[in-house]
Amino acid sequence: MNIGFFGFNNGPLADPATMAATLRALEAAGFESAWTGEHVVLIDPQEAPSPVPPDFPMLDTVAALAFAAGITERLRLASGIILLAQRNPVVLAKELAGIDRLSRGRLVFGVGVGYVEREFEIIGVPYAERGARVTEHIEAIRTLWTQDRPAFDGRFTRIANVQQKPMPVQEPHPPIVIGGMSAPAYRRAVTQGNGWYGFAQTVEATAASLAGLARAADALDRPAALGDLEITVTPAGRVDRDVVRRYEDLGVSRLVLLPGRLPADDGAADAAVRFIEETARTLAL
Question: Model pTM greater than 0.85?
Fold first, then answer.
């Protein structure tokens, strides 16, 4: 089981010194990956389903990944998740190819659809189009990452007679991980993803999602080039070795852990490092 850490760009960790201490501690403790969270804007005043208060700091995913690439050597660096419908896929492909280059091939491209309608209104993307945009944007980005003479003719994006270099280090491209616990997300993971990511999932909820992925796999053809579907979960609740085994028995290969509530002051770095070191001891990383 690989062990990751979620939200190194969020809340009290969204400070350069605190983020650097957290990332270095993760690498020293033997964690496999560090994952960002993303909301480009937050609703003010907060209203459901927005997950956090409007003044909750969230550093931009691309900026945070670039920062992490510069101060780590082994950690895989993952977007968990980029709200892809809210992004220009041509610009994002360029930015993330740069992250993969700067990190020498450590990017994991986690994508999702999003669920807060007013965020889409502010950004200017029709909420009803978000699923179609994500499906198409994945293929537009894959085109730019893999084709020497990229050509793509979609509903939202057309690419022809351009170059975008350098391409990512990883071949054929950085792994694409599809987040979401819905039937469309399961279908997208089966047909377009190298992996699937479930957030804040109990063992029981994970089993239900895996059943949904299995139904999608029975109904759809999975391109052979995608390989086996890697399963990543952020578990709900505390994690010890027994809990890890329960997820492992389901076929989960990566757990991305939440550090819990951290102090909103200068103690955040110390608290994050304590969580990391205690987790490493508990799970014998």
Answer: yes
Q: What is the largest CA-CA distance in the chain?
A: 54
Strand pairing partners for 83?
Answer: 112
Rounded CA separation 2/254 (Å): 5
Tokens encoding 18: 């605190």
Q: Show the domain range for 230.
A: 2-283
What is the DSSP code (8-state) at residue 239? Answer: -
Say if strands 152-153 and 158-159 run parallel, antiparallel, or are unpaired.
antiparallel
CB neighbour list of residue 52: distance below 8 Å, 6 or more residues apart: 39, 42, 46
Do 278 and 259 contact (CB within 8 A), yes or no? no
How far is Cα 239 from Cα 134, in angstroms, rounded to an integer? 32
Phi, psi of 220, rounded to the nearest 5 degrees: -125, 155
**Distance from C-alpha of 26 to C-alpha of 34, rounded to nearest angstrom:** 8
- Total domains in the chain come to 1
* pLDDT tens column, 59-74: 999 999 999 999 999 9
41: CATH: 3.20.20.30
Choose among 80, 33, 62: nearest CA to 198.
Answer: 80
